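Q: Convert this sequence to structure tokens.
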Amino acid sequence: MQEMFAGIAERLKALRDIMDISPKEIADYIGISEEDYLEHEKGENDFSFTFLFKASQCLGVDITDILTGESPKLSVYTVVRKNKGLPIERRAGFDYQNLAYLFKAREIETFLVTAKYDSNLENEPIALSQHVGQEFDYVLGGSLKVKINDSIEILNQGDTIYYDSGNGHGMIAIGGEDCKFLAVVTNEKRGNK
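A:
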């Protein structure tokens, strides 16, 4: 795992240098301090999904470039077989599979997400994140407690939610089991925020 962090950190620094973007500029875009950003770039901090998503937007590259060092090449269509999405395990309690990582110039990001049930989180405040664009989540199984700003929604299998992801949003699995959902996120590029 540490080797994976080091590879992501190296690619992040190289891309930032190539794009001639200062650490402060990318940190401001992501919404963290410059010091915190530089710790990520040195591989000293774990990478959240939101961090990677915003960094890819700021750098004008595909998130796949940062994660794997390879650019998507397909432009007509792509097929990803069951359980073969690009795994992104960048947030505690959540497993993401990018379902279209081989398609270049994606206008949306599609993820199969598993929110792991943790009874300790049910009565704790839900951590919120923000990023430009919009998001659509469709619950495939289990139950999801979603917080958008100060509003709480409980979603069950077959329920959906669509929101402006520039608002604070976060979610946890509830009901004693993991929750699996499809997340579709618009992919705003740098300069289009």
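Residues 114 and 180 are 4 Å apart (CA to CA).
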